[in-house]
């Protein structure tokens, strides 16, 4: 933090003829030679100039013999400005004919012009650098204050403060990375009462499985499933956040992630390992220690939305798809109509978003910000985020054809920022304090409940044409995509 | 019957096979001519489009890449419907992925329930032939399997080194095109059209994704 201010004062006095100082380049040409520092280098291959920038190394290549050189400036004094300093050969090497007076003057002039331009550029860059540095410093200070508020005011009084206005406002702006792990743990809780002892037992079993040690009394089928899931975990871990390189072969988190997923498969054999879990577990491991990460992961997987998806419960998944479709229609009717006209069903993009809670689609930073509020507000927020993404790109999407739109949604632009996304989600935060708000808009949870009630009313019946007709009538009055209604029939038919 | 001669055909192709056999890589190599070790697990299903010429006719291939984990198959119906060709992929260095071809094929036929399933076009790709030293399934064995499945075309390919990819996809496109023009009514009736928004029903065709 203090480095620029301490470097600055000594910078100007110790600079030679080329400085960042605005007046330096107005100096008369005649004056310059007097101030030139003439240095002779016996051997230019010496490492003394090895750390000079590219230009000098190029020159060194050209003039490998000794000659008279001048050194402009002193690099050590102000690294921010003086990086164009180079070694310039004033005259030709002694074995070559000397330049004429006229040519020398012309070269000098050209050289001065080049130098001046470089100086101007340097000054500009330096200004920008300082500005960026100041902005960063300000942001860091603000963050330090926010971190202190979390650490000293909110976390010690969690129960009384987590739901206050102040805390909610701070929370919305994104948790500081230093407290994120702690806040997530508190927000998710441990309703399953996963103890460290249980965790250790699961880890031990997972280690045995991962090392291929056979358990006795295992049926052939169980063994096949076990091997399949172990192999699947190992394969997927290496395909989790590949760009980070830490979960891949030899990476520091490879074993931790494999162990967490293996332990979970032992803890919940009814769920097991399901593709996309690796993304969720990976983010927990990046934010907290292995045991709390396991607790958070297990409890998250036990939420209704996650249970429905990770156990591939098609009728429950369908309820979510229909509810989202209704919600989408309510909030963004124009885009909904466009999608529906193209037969673009919500499940095509929502599946990926729900399974990974956006970890695969948004950048790691933005994903964490979404998770901040997801753990506070629950599953509804994931659907609000989905709408936020759609709203943010509404104009673009309205002009897209089916294939372009699907391609876009399955691979979102990498430059979506948290602030921009949250501005777009904010609109949907206002809908309904209660079940419905003044405009008659319903909350996602309300819509989901209605869909659930209507769909379960026919539960237990064999699904055929007439029952689907019944569902259709049951859902009468709800606007559902024609595309989705076909899908609904497909999904329910397979029950 | 067949569509108008100048109409660009849209061919829907599904790639199925065990996790890790290289389905996404095959697709990327075909569409973008590149291979990366750094791709993420496919969740649900992904798709990519590519225009190509098949026997002088311009067609658009819509290739659906699916999740390889077995349990995701139950979601398959949503993606399989309307397919014109199904590509089965296995890894020549992994014999389990070869053994699982039968279940993948059967499951596809059950879920997509195409008309005349006996003649539905499949193409088999044996990927990773660049890893010759690790080979676990011989070409002969794969060819013998194909013979039992109404002479399914078979290609030994490498997504990594772009071996046989274009040739394989030409065959896939041709098979899909033949299917599409011979029977555009492959999936005539959906079990039921749950038309909630009856007032606005614009068209009678719900045939996927067009």
Task: Explain what this protein looks like in three dimensions.
Helix content of chain A is 62%, strand content 2%. Chain A has 495 residues and is mostly helical. The longest helix of chain A is centred in the first third of the chain and has 54 residues, at 101-154. Chain B is built from 6 helices and 6 strands; from the N terminus they run E-H-E-E-H-E-H-H-E-H-E-H. Chain B has a 6-stranded mixed sheet, with helices on both faces. In chain B, strand 2 (45-54) and strand 3 (57-66) form a beta hairpin. At the A-B interface, helix 9, helix 16, helix 20, helix 23 and helix 24 of A face strand 2 of B. Chain B: Keywords: GTP-binding, Lipoprotein, Nucleotide-binding, Prenylation.
Q: Which strand order do you get reading across the main beta sheet of chain B?
A: 2-3-1-4-5-6
Average pLDDT metric of chain A: 79
Largest beta sheet of chain A: what is the strand line-up? 1-2-3
Shape of chain B, please? globular
Work out the number of β strands of chain A: 3
Cα-atom Rg of chain A, whole angstroms? 32 Å
Protein name (chain B): Ras-related protein Rab-7a
Organism (chain B): Mesorhabditis spiculigera
GO cellular component, one term (chain B): phagocytic vesicle
Main location (chain B): membrane
Which features would summarize this protein structure in a list?
heterodimer; A: 495 residues; mainly alpha; three-stranded antiparallel sheet; 3 strands; 2% strand; disordered N terminus; B: 210 residues; alpha/beta; 6 helices; 6 strands; 29% helix; globular; disordered C terminus; GTPase activator activity (chain A); Rab-GAP_TBC_sf (chain A); Rab-GAP-TBC_dom (chain A); Rab_GAP_TBC_domain (chain A)
Topology (elements, then pairings):
The complex is a heterodimer of chains A (about 500) and B (about 210).
Chain A: H1 3-14, H2 31-35, E1 37-40, H3 54-62, E2 68-71, E3 87-89, H4 101-154, H5 158-161, H6 165-172, H7 177-188, H8 196-210, H9 220-237, H10 254-267, H11 277-287, H12 290-301, H13 304-310, H14 314-331, H15 333-341, H16 347-356, H17 364-377, H18 380-392, H19 394-398, H20 402-410, H21 418-429, H22 444-456, H23 465-474, H24 482-493
Antiparallel strand pairs in A: 1-2, 2-3
Chain B: E1 9-16, H1 23-32, E2 45-54, E3 57-66, H2 76-80, E4 85-91, H3 95-99, H4 101-112, E5 122-127, H5 139-148, E6 154-156, H6 165-182
Parallel strand pairs in B: 1-3, 1-4, 4-5, 5-6
Antiparallel strand pairs in B: 2-3
């Amino acid at each position: 933090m203090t480095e620029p201010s301490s470097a600055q004062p000594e910078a100007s006095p110790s600079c030679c003829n080329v400085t960042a100082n605005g007046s330096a380049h107005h100096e008369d040409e005649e004056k310059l030679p007097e101030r030139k520092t003439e240095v002779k280098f016996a051997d230019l291959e010496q490492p003394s100039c090895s750390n000079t920038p590219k230009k000098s190394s190029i020159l060194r290549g050209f003039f490998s013999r000794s000659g008279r050189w001048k050194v402009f400036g002193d690099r050590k004094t102000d690294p921010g400005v003086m990086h164009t300093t180079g070694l310039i050969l004033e005259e030709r090497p002694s074995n070559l004919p000397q330049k004429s007076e006229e040519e020398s003057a012309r070269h000098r002039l050209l050289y001065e012009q080049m130098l001046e331009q470089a100086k101007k550029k340097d000054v500009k860059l330096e200004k920008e650098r300082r500005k960026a540095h100041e902005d960063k410093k300000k942001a860091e200070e603000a963050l330090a204050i926010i971190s202190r508020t979390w650490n000293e005011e909110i976390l010690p009084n969690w129960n009384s403060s987590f739901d206050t206005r102040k805390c909610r406002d701070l929370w919305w702006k994104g948790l500081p990375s230093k407290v994120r792990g702690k806040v997530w743990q508190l927000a998710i809780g441990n309703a399953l009462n996963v103890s460290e002892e249980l965790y250790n037992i699961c880890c031990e079993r997972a280690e045995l499985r991962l090392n291929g040690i056979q358990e006795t009394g295992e049926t052939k089928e169980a063994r096949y499933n076990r091997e399949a899931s172990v192999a699947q975990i190992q394969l997927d871990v290496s395909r989790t956040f590949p760009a980070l390189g830490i979960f891949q072969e030899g990476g520091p988190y490879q074993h931790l992630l494999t162990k967490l997923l293996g332990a979970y498969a032992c803890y919940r054999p009814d769920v097991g390992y399901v593709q996309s879990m690796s993304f969720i577990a990976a983010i927990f491991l990046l934010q907290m220690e292995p045991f709390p990460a396991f607790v958070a992961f297990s409890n998250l997987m036990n939420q209704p939305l996650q249970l429905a998806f990770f156990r591939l419960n098609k009728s429950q998944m369908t309820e979510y798809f229909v509810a989202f479709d209704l919600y989408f229609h309510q909030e963004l009717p124009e885009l909904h109509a466009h999608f529906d006209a193209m037969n673009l069903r919500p499940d095509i993009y929502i599946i990926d978003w729900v399974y990974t809670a956006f970890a695969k689609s948004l950048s790691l930073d933005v994903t964490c910000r979404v998770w901040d509020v997801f753990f506070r507000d629950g599953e509804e927020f994931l659907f609000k985020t989905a709408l936020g993404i759609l709203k943010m790109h509404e104009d673009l999407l309205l002009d897209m054809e089916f294939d372009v739109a699907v391609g876009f949604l399955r691979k979102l632009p990498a430059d979506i920022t948290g602030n921009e996304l949250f501005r777009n989600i904010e609109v949907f935060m206002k809908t309904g304090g209660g079940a419905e708000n003044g405009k008659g808009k319903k909350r996602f949870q309300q819509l989901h409940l209605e869909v659930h009630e209507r769909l379960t009313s026919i539960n237990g019946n064999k699904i055929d044409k007439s029952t689907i007709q019944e569902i259709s009538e049951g859902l009468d009055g709800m606007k559902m995509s024609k595309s989705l209604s076909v899908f609904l029939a497909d999904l329910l038919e397979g029950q | 019957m067949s569509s108008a001669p100048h109409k660009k055909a849209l061919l829907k192709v599904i790639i199925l096979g065990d996790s890790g056999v290289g389905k996404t890589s095959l697709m990327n190599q075909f569409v973008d001519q590149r291979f990366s070790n750094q791709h993420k697990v496919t969740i649900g299903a992904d798709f990519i489009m590519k225009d190509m010429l098949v026997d002088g006719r311009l067609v658009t291939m819509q290739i659906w890449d699916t999740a390889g984990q077995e349990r995701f198959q139950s979601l398959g119906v949503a993606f399989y419907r309307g397919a014109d060709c199904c590509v089965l992929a296995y890894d020549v260095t992994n014999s389990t992925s070869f053994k699982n071809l039968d279940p993948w094929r059967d499951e596809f036929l059950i879920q997509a329930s195409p008309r005349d399933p006996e003649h539905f076009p499949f193409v088999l790709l044996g990927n990773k032939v660049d890893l010759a030293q690790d080979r676990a399934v011989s070409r002969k064995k794969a060819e013998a399997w194909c013979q039992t499945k109404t002479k399914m075309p078979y290609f030994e390919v490498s997504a990594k080194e772009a071996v046989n990819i274009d040739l394989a996809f030409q065959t896939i496109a041709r098979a899909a095109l033949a299917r599409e023009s011979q029977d555009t009514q492959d999936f005539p009736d959906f079990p039921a059209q749950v038309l909630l928004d009856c007032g606005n029903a614009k068209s009678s065709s719900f045939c996927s994704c067009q």
